[in-house]
Specification:
The chain has a seven-stranded mixed beta sheet. It is built from six helices and seven strands; from the N terminus they run ααβββαβαββααβ. The longest helix has 20 residues, at 3-22. It is α/β, with parallel strands linked by helices and 220 residues long. 28% of the residues are buried. One of its GO terms (molecular function) is cysteine-type endopeptidase activity. This is Peptidase C14 caspase domain-containing protein. Pfam families: Peptidase_C14.
Length: 220
């Protein structure tokens, strides 16, 4: 990240760390990773038992882009390569760490290359919407199940970097139990708040973002 984006991200990540610190959580923050460095960092947790830990939360902010009208990728700026979100959470599949307990991956992607509005429409129309706002053409949220259990992938693709503040405020409210109900319902309400109060989707002026959740919190 560079300039204002970097400052915004540092402030937001600090807010999240302060929030989880108040809950007594073990926390680590790293910045400026390329793909391999990020994977190696996560492997420290994937193959390690930490007593008293019953949930793993990973928050990743990166440049991202929709490719081939299919899905959003993270972007390794150092090596100038894209990679799938799955490349990170797949590290925890089959490992003994937190078996049967939630591993939550929250990806916030910033626009690296300007996306066409029609590209995003084609992407999101592949999924059934869970929440509908009047000006979204029924395309703004996807809810599907991944192949493996006990993984929750939340992907929030921003149109404007300053939308990150509202994202972090909502996540902190969830962590502080200010939003009632199970996690998926909380995320649904989070999406509604972004639509109604933070202009997260505005097709009229071609400001379009996406909020997708892939989840299965059972079995392994």
């Amino acid at each position: 990240m560079e300039g204002e984006n970097e400052t915004l991200l540092k402030h937001s990540s600090t807010s999240l760390l302060e929030c989880v610190a108040k809950k007594g959580c073990i926390r680590k923050r790293k910045a400026d990773f390329n793909k391999n460095e990020l994977k190696n960092f996560l492997k420290e947790f994937a193959g390690k038992e930490i007593p008293g830990v019953d949930c793993f939360i990973c928050f990743v902010a990166s440049y991202g882009k929709v490719y081939n009208d299919k899905e959003i990728y993270l972007y390794d700026r150092e090596n100038k390569k894209k990679f799938q979100l799955e490349a990170l959470w797949i590290l925890f599949v089959g490992e003994n760490f937190l078996v049967g307990k939630p591993k939550i991956f929250i990806f916030v992607t910033f626009p690296h290359v300007k996306k066409r509005l029609e590209d995003m429409k084609k992407l999101m129309k592949k999924y059934a919407p869970c929440v509908v706002a009047e000006d979204t053409d029924n395309i703004h949220i996807a809810s599907t199940l991944p192949e493996h259990a006990d993984i929750l992938e939340v992907n929030i693709d921003l149109k404007e970097p300053n939308q990150l503040k509202a994202i972090v405020e909502n996540l902190c409210n969830i962590l502080n139990n200010k939003s009632p109900g199970d996690l998926l319902n909380q995320l649904t309400r989070m999406n509604s708040d972004l639509v109604e109060n933070h202009e997260f989707y505005s097709l009229a002026d071609k400001h379009f973002a996406s909020f997708s959740v892939k989840s299965s919190l059972t079995k392994t």
